[in-house]
Design goal:
By secondary structure, the protein is of the alpha/beta class. About 45% of the residues lie in helices and about 15% in strands. It has one domain: Acetylglutamate kinase-like (Carbamate kinase). The protein has a 6-stranded parallel β-sheet.
Amino acid sequence: MKNVEVEVIKLGGSLLSRPNIAADLRAWVAQEDATLDARCRVLVMGGGQMVDALRAIAASGPLTEYDTHWRAIDIMHVTGRILATWLGHVALVEQYESAVSKCRNPGWMVLLPRDFLRNQEQLLPGKRLEEGWHVTSDSIAGRLATCLGATKLRLVKSRQATSAEAADWTVAAQNGLVDSYFPQLVDDFAASGCQVATTVLPQASEVEAAH
């Protein structure tokens, strides 16, 4: 049996407050399914404004970077559940080993990262993640991509990357398109054959017009 290709898709948390985002996401998933590309798609949801609020709290009170890092991971579980609710039919997966098993078959899942980060990530080969504000959902999705053997990592952002950002992840990090730790994962992407790209989420009306 041919191995199923795995794609990790990180959805930027800033999308959470976009008007009509639930409809846009459902239309986009339907568009992806219409390609009949039988791959396993693993969705990772960023924290968005909830993490921004955590940053403000951390700036005004005694919280270590370790504390805020793991509270931000907790927030990703909240936003991931919101994403799964909006999509309806997409499986919500909390355990990393369950995700590994599901990656053997085509389909979609929303993966919550806490179990992977707490119990698995440090045991797996490749560049380990650090704990701090410089490691966000971009790098978490990137590390997941290499650990899951993904052939593609797609970062869905609120804006298009410039040509300079698309050519150099260090420039992308300097401009805030990805987190500052992300460029340190580039060698792992190359070694594992994982292609990395940024894109924007189309509006539902754009998807419908394309058909």
